[in-house]
Amino acid sequence: MSPDGRFGGSATGKILAIGTGVTMLIAIYMMFLYAPQDTMQGPVQRVFYLHLPLAWIAYLAFFIVFVASIAYLIKRNRRWDQLARSSAEVGLVFTTLVIITGSIWGRPIWGTFWEWDARLTTTLILWFIYLGYFMVRAYVSDQERAMRYAAVVGIIGFIDVPIIHMSVRWWRTLHPEPIVTQSGGPAMPDSMLYTLGVSLVAFTLFFGYLVYQKLLIEQAKDQVADHNLAVADREADEAREHSAKGATA
Amino acid sequence: MDNETYLFMAFGISWVVFAVYLWSINNQAQGLSEEVRSLRDQQDDEHQ
């Protein structure tokens, strides 16, 4: 937050916002006009350039929650908790969209919006874990304890991420195996690969921008809460002093 | 529904969700800015 109390005006915020805007426009152009149409799936295959970056960001967001939660438990510095909760909130939005875009893509290709398949189910479990992460924060009244419990959920919850990633290899699923990170190189033309690369950069910058803004908000919220607590303490002290004076008089 | 409708549905829903989320972040930031500013004014008054 800037000294006059405004958000997003810092150089970091501006660089991330401009970077996101520029790369996102290039990514959209490439997704719809540069990348060739898939001969098997038709136009709906272009959802791939949205769905895969969203999934990558969901992993990244919860990796940040995982690291920040460990750092918080070790150092007990509230800044790590602020980073974890900012990343978790943005991660929850991206995970929601991974599930929605995956379902929409699945309908014309698999003939169904939803299947209790390993990849889809483990992703839904991740969504519920991070919903639980916020429920812990909301329902534990003692702030310090809420931060501690949420950190534990953030660490344990991350175990689901490698399970999601490996699910298509460990179990027989409707969801295809990775075609970019497979052994022997990506199974797609260069133009599709470049489009995916630009889209990944655009969404990563967008994620950075959202987490940065959210972090500023969380820091300001904590400052306001600290101030209100200090005022309440001072008022309580004054009231006690006042009543003590009254008693001696 | 044809294949293209699903494509635009996926992109449309995603952009709407992002727009709503950005709007909510902006609203939160605006509310907090006002709160922080009023607290600063209050502190300045107390010092004077």
* Unreliable residue stretches of chain A: none
- Give the number of DSSP strands of chain B: 0
Percent in strands of chain B? under 5%
* Oligomerization category of the chains in this entry: heterodimer
Helix fraction of chain B?
Answer: over 70%
Number of strands of chain A: 0
Biggest sheet of chain B, in brief?
Answer: none
Q: Average pLDDT value of chain B?
A: 88
- Form type of chain A: elongated
Your description of this structure?
The complex is a heterodimer of chains A (249) and B (48). Chain A has 249 residues and is an all-alpha fold. Chain A has one domain. Chain A has seven helices and no strands. Chain A is elongated, with a radius of gyration of 23 Å. The N and C termini of chain A lie far apart (48 Å). With 48 residues, chain B is mainly alpha-helical. The A-B interface holds A 1, 4-8, 41-44, 46-47, 50-51, 54, 93, 96-97, 100-101, 104-105, 107-108, 206, 210, 213-214, 216-217, 220-221, 223-224, 227 and B 1, 3-4, 6-7, 9-11, 13-14, 17-18, 21-22, 25, 28-30, 32-37, 39-40.
